[in-house]
Amino acid sequence: MLAHGIKFGKTVGIISPAGCDDAEIINKKISDFRNLGFNVKVGAHVFDKYGYLAGEDKVRAYDLMNMFIDDEVDAIVCFRGGYGSARMLPYLDLGVIKRHPKIFCGYSDITLILNYLYKKLGLITFHGPMVKSDFSDLTTRDSFFNAVMDRSCNYKIDLNSFDSVQVHNTKNISGKLVGGNLSIICSSLGTPFEIDTKDKILFLEDVNEKIYSIDRMLTQLNLANKLKYCKGFILGNFTPNENDMKEHNFTLNELIAQKILPLRKPTIVNLPFGHEHQNITLPVGGSVKIDFEAGLITPVKEFVL
Amino acid sequence: MLAHGIKFGKTVGIISPAGCDDAEIINKKISDFRNLGFNVKVGAHVFDKYGYLAGEDKVRAYDLMNMFIDDEVDAIVCFRGGYGSARMLPYLDLGVIKRHPKIFCGYSDITLILNYLYKKLGLITFHGPMVKSDFSDLTTRDSFFNAVMDRSCNYKIDLNSFDSVQVHNTKNISGKLVGGNLSIICSSLGTPFEIDTKDKILFLEDVNEKIYSIDRMLTQLNLANKLKYCKGFILGNFTPNENDMKEHNFTLNELIAQKILPLRKPTIVNLPFGHEHQNITLPVGGSVKIDFEAGLITPVKEFVL
């Protein structure tokens, strides 16, 4: 299920389902976001603070539900990640969301919501920048616009335009995308919010984690059979922890060679999505084709629905 | 199943199922450990280095298996934790271990092995100091000796002897202990090495984690129904991350009040086990009685077997 894309001038609902922020920053970033060309409606509790959370669990869920229900709101973009989605999810009413499908965008901690809404409702959600994000990078901005502003989701990702990208086991595949932040995906394992990766193309990114911690998480995903049945992998930004450059360590590439490549699935490494400056938008639940000869990731028909 | 306890002069097998270390440190710490009164036998790959691991996964498993098989070895104590048990566990032969039950001790990353051997074989294992640990604290040392050196496991923990200990929902209970390092327990969820906490008394500790990360892990355990069916909780050392003292934060006590106490189970907080100087030994799979009036944790009959 793909909700109607939005247009410039339409209303974006802004919520904070996870971490809180200071009012000055929130106001500044909402103003910047409005300047992208959207009208905005700000959730009642976006300015709340409860520890590191933007209000208590139930009020963050209340804001999210209200944005889906509100007919004046055409799409929902989260203000920021941080932590807290897992505490809020048990309070969502999925039936109500199903009757009001909308574009929903975020990443990092929001990974949990993206994949849960897709898994339970079939709603295609968007792993992409948030209101607090920096939209100054043109690739980031165009990718976001292309993904959320057109019902046909008519964007393509040209792998050749990114110098950093590496490819392995280059057999062309089609499949639905799921994924997001590796830590968050691992923190969903064993819970009702666990990601379903079977027959999917799994994309993963993380930031500021130590190499052994990335190893531990990939090992957990593997032991939980979350890698074995994927169609392929797309790995994004994995900015290592800067205090983790000591002598006895694997490099990220060594880790990928140990944990991902032996699975013999088509794999793209270093696609710029996630916590770095450049963060291209990926549709969770969207069907894509990866053509390695052409170096393209493109939406396929069922994605357009 | 409780293996025979050891005596001074008996042989302790030393292995490194997880992280590596420098030869100088290993030699020094093995010498110190020998001075506690034990003969030692050092695993063939304890000095190996493969990234942060003490050798490749299969050779670490080989060392562990060999120590169980070797009739000259009376008990097994891990050299250190770090990371790596999860990578090694798939290579163990449980049938062989079952035919050669032995005292097995460690903590931190070793949590995974302790709980897995208990869950699959019923073998009581020991969450306690390792060869690299500091045994200068008398409580640490005595607790270790009492736990591993007597088939009757004839030790008791006097809660009143620790100023830091707090108790909640003080209803006396009996049950089998499981648990250990919170991060490691969460990293087992969804895998074949997942901890079984049903009807158990769950003990947890962690070190150098940010408060939001402890929140996330307790939330995951709760959503995975790993807290709901416990008989009670024992929380140990939770030394917070020192860079995590910023403005918007919960305290550890606030987190316990939010995530643990509402479950209305008997709960002991701040028992000194885990990564700090004082680390008392707890038997994974051992049956204990918690008597809040007397302020005592004592083994019960089935534990002695």
TrEMBL record, chains A, B:
<keyword id="KW-0645">Protease</keyword>
<dbReference type="GO" id="GO:0008236">
    <property type="term" value="F:serine-type peptidase activity"/>
</dbReference>
<dbReference type="Pfam" id="PF17676">
    <property type="entry name" value="Peptidase_S66C"/>
</dbReference>
<feature type="active site" description="Nucleophile">
    <location>
        <position position="108"/>
    </location>
</feature>
<dbReference type="InterPro" id="IPR003507">
    <property type="entry name" value="S66_fam"/>
</dbReference>
<dbReference type="InterPro" id="IPR027478">
    <property type="entry name" value="LdcA_N"/>
</dbReference>
<protein>
    <submittedName>
        <fullName>Putative murein peptide carboxypeptidase</fullName>
    </submittedName>
</protein>
<keyword id="KW-0720">Serine protease</keyword>
<feature type="active site" description="Charge relay system">
    <location>
        <position position="275"/>
    </location>
</feature>
<dbReference type="InterPro" id="IPR027461">
    <property type="entry name" value="Carboxypeptidase_A_C_sf"/>
</dbReference>
<dbReference type="GO" id="GO:0004180">
    <property type="term" value="F:carboxypeptidase activity"/>
</dbReference>
<keyword id="KW-0121">Carboxypeptidase</keyword>
<feature type="active site" description="Charge relay system">
    <location>
        <position position="205"/>
    </location>
</feature>
<feature type="domain" description="LD-carboxypeptidase N-terminal">
    <location>
        <begin position="12"/>
        <end position="128"/>
    </location>
</feature>
<dbReference type="Pfam" id="PF02016">
    <property type="entry name" value="Peptidase_S66"/>
</dbReference>
<dbReference type="InterPro" id="IPR040921">
    <property type="entry name" value="Peptidase_S66C"/>
</dbReference>
<feature type="domain" description="LD-carboxypeptidase C-terminal">
    <location>
        <begin position="174"/>
        <end position="290"/>
    </location>
</feature>
<dbReference type="InterPro" id="IPR040449">
    <property type="entry name" value="Peptidase_S66_N"/>
</dbReference>
<keyword id="KW-0378">Hydrolase</keyword>
<dbReference type="GO" id="GO:0006508">
    <property type="term" value="P:proteolysis"/>
</dbReference>
<dbReference type="InterPro" id="IPR029062">
    <property type="entry name" value="Class_I_gatase-like"/>
</dbReference>
<comment type="similarity">
    <text>Belongs to the peptidase S66 family.</text>
</comment>
